[in-house]
Amino acid sequence: xxxxxxxxxxxxxxxxxxxxxxxxxxxxxxxxxxxxxxxxxxxxxxxxxxxxxxxxxxxxxxxxxxxxxxxxxxxxxxxxxxxxxxxxxxxxxxxxxxxxxxxxxxxxxxxxxxxxxxxxxxxxxxxxxxxxxxxxxxxxxxxxxxxxxxxxxxxxxxxxxxxxxxxxxxxxxxxxxxxxxxxxxxxxxxxxxxxxxxxxxxxxxxxxxxxxxxxxxxxxxxxxxxxxxxxxxxxxxxxxxxxxxxxxxxxxxxxxxxxxxxx
Length: 263
Known about the structure:
The protein is an alpha+beta fold. It is 48% helix and 11% strand. Pfam families: HTH_3, MLTR_LBD.
């Protein structure tokens, strides 16, 4: 890539973050003129300035490496597979967290919402879904929205799918990931899925509840659950920076009773 490319990347991310050129320049300690020259490709930023910009725009570690490469510098952050021994302690801690959460479902997923770890309760929810729908690795968007997946068992599909489709649309826009974009295009062809251009404006309509619940049928009984998403606070590895943990909790006593009975 060239200096012009890194300028485009910075300008695009600043626009997504809705930050003015002047405010961002003052925060990182450079002149607005210098930042303007960087964005226009007239000036090459130092690695230090580049990382300051990335930090103030909350850029994920993967994209920070991309910026460094685009500007002609070596990447700074390693990307270690979760299965490697270097991350064995972290992986064990994550699995222990998910297992402790059982009998309520819990998963750990990467930036593409591919499931990397799960507990027994989560596996029970997807039992019976065809392997070609689950995929390898299993993908949350595909499992939840495919008509042969959990979509057919979701009792509030319009509301729940609105949440998922908007998350997917935002992920595609933010990351420009071709795999996510291809998945979004495929999902747009499935039954009961709104047209692709409407996803960014979809909002669940459940004003009576303090949090959106996922209402799902399991063995003829209806479950009602809400989820909590969490990430690592200080990741220094791209893999860990990309990971999210989603824990589902029962939204009523009936759901808690059912889940504990199934366990």
